[in-house]
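step 4 of 6: structure.
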Amino acid sequence: MNDKIVTRFAPSPTGYMHIGNLRTALYAFLIAKHADGTFILRIEDTDRERLVEGATDVIIKTLEMTGLSYDEGPDVGGDHGPYIQSERRPIYKKYAELLVERGAAYYCFCSKERLEQLHEEDSNGGYDRHCRDLTPEEIQKNLAAGLPYVIRQRMPLEGSTSYVDSVFGEISIDNAELQDQILLKADGYPTYNFAHIVDDYLMGVTHVVRGSEYLPSTPKYALLYDAFGWERPTYVHLPLLMGKNEDGSVSKLSKRHGAVSFQDLVLDGYLPEAIVNYIALLGWCLKDSEAEFFTLDELKSVFTIDGINKSPSVFDFDKLLWFNGEYIRKMPFEDFKKSVSPFIKTALPENINKDLMLSLAAGRLNKLSQIDDMISFFLHLPAYETDLFLNKKNKVTLENAPVILKAARPILESLDDWSNDTLYSALLPLAESLGVKSGAVMWCLRIAVSGLSVTPGGATEIMAVIGKNETLSRLDTAISKF
Ligand code: GLU
């Protein structure tokens, strides 16, 4: 084996990218990139009944959006192609036959009906190894007669098989428990169980990184490596991903826990960078550190296999939301504008200060899809009652509120420059002349121009967003309520 680390992401094209799969891609990418190694994308589409149109594009697009660029893959090529399993069919047949020659696999001519019958009699029993000991003559006769066949792995019947996983340690299984699994199907396509072994070997994969659901079947795969005489790869199985149920318990992360595909999260207004950062932490942490924020480049330099944890990790939507908000706030404004624009469904009035409005909103948003709700008060004054003006801290009462509003109106009306700074300095002296706190003035004006007690931005910023005419009109509405 060469010294260079080679990993691969080998998704089946299902049409969406589950967060668990994206985490596998990320970890495989990081393990390779940490060591300046090679990261390969391979599409595992041998289950022809489950093909979904456009599914490969979803995978490619997701990896592009998340920055998980691969050195070899279907669209970028490489020395080990093709990278789509359905295009590698002849390769698998050759290797399956090689195993038959070596006695590690055998032809099975059992009909579908016979197998169904077996399953009916005992649904857990599996294949009864009916064809395991056919004579060479019987096999030749069946092949010559053109009988459909599959090729099965000949499992040892005694002893046990073990391997060492880098995360979970030694995994051992009694060989008696191993089924003579199908390697090559009657349609000539390999099963996943076989195809990925051949491909990982031919593509020079040194580290197999995937979900822990493959832990128990990996002894079977290790036996295939042994039968070929190939060195086994390093196995890195990742902890289960769980979701929180309403009753507080946890179970395998699935749709009922919320959006669990990358696309759905993006549609819901999560940023790819935030998603990547958050899922990096689902099963990994930086040793002796509390650090949680990592760019992809930082992850490349600090990510190591010994930071991967074997206990299940819980996908916490609240935490992701918080993360996302932090990312929104760290984003350069121009990038934020570009990202949030598609989420704004309401038409914006021409004279609104859009940039200021969006920069105020950016301070409060946790996901981009909250933008319409967040900005709606800029566009339409919500209905409110005069009680909203009451404020103990600033000593605002139903008596002094209208006085403040009425006194502010002519000042505002006289202003030509409608910037936040001008508005602020023009209104500040009002507090002193009325003998109230400046907080009282700003509070009353903010309620009047927003109709809300909590807003992104203060009174003068909101005024600067909505413009002079709208400000005066909202002020009149407020005054008329008393
Ligand atoms: N195609 C398999 C899956 O999507 C890949 C498992 C592996 O990485 O070996 O689960």
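step 5 of 6: annotate
 - The two ends are 83 Å apart (CA to CA).
 - The pocket of glutamic acid is lined by residues 10-12, 44, 192, 196, 210, 214 (CB under 6 Å).
step 6 of 6: archive
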